């Protein structure tokens, strides 16, 4: 480890990488009725599945999906099956620029706290991870 590195690469992967094990995918990415209602507000299958993937990443491992990052096929297929959507719809969503800011705003509204503009900018730029964030104002 480097001098100021707190976590080893293995520890960092365990904390921040999404699961690949089928049992862990089921445990972390089973959608609640409230989750399904929120996701179904999106207008097209590709948008619903894309939003579900982003939302799932925010829930676990607690971070934004990286711009060059591709979620596992198993995770996308599991989310798609819960939504009654073909998992191929994600490729259509993935080919278009994602509005991560609106996804974070929705997540903030659901979690009932407000983040400063600087904090949201830091998340979007990748310098903060959502689990590092502390609520600054209760709604």
From TrEMBL:
Residues 6-95 form the DUF4158 domain. It comes from Methylocystis hirsuta. InterPro entries: DUF4158 (IPR025296). Pfam families: DUF4158 (PF13700). It comes from the Bacteria. This is DUF4158 domain-containing protein.
């Amino acid at each position: 480890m480097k001098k100021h590195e707190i976590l080893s690469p293995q520890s960092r992967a365990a904390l921040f990488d999404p699961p690949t094990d089928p049992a862990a995918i089921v445990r972390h990415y089973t959608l609640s009725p409230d989750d399904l209602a929120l996701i179904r507000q999106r207008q097209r299958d590709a948008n619903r599945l894309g939003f579900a993937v982003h939302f799932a990443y925010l829930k676990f491992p607690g971070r934004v999906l990286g711009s060059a990052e591709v979620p596992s096929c198993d995770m996308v297929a599991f989310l798609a099956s819960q939504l009654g959507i073909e998992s191929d719809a994600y490729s259509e969503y993935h080919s278009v620029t994602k509005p991560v800011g609106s996804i974070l705003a929705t997540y903030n509204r659901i979690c009932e706290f407000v983040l400063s503009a600087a904090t949201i900018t830091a998340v979007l730029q990748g310098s903060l991870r959502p689990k590092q964030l502390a609520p600054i104002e209760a709604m």
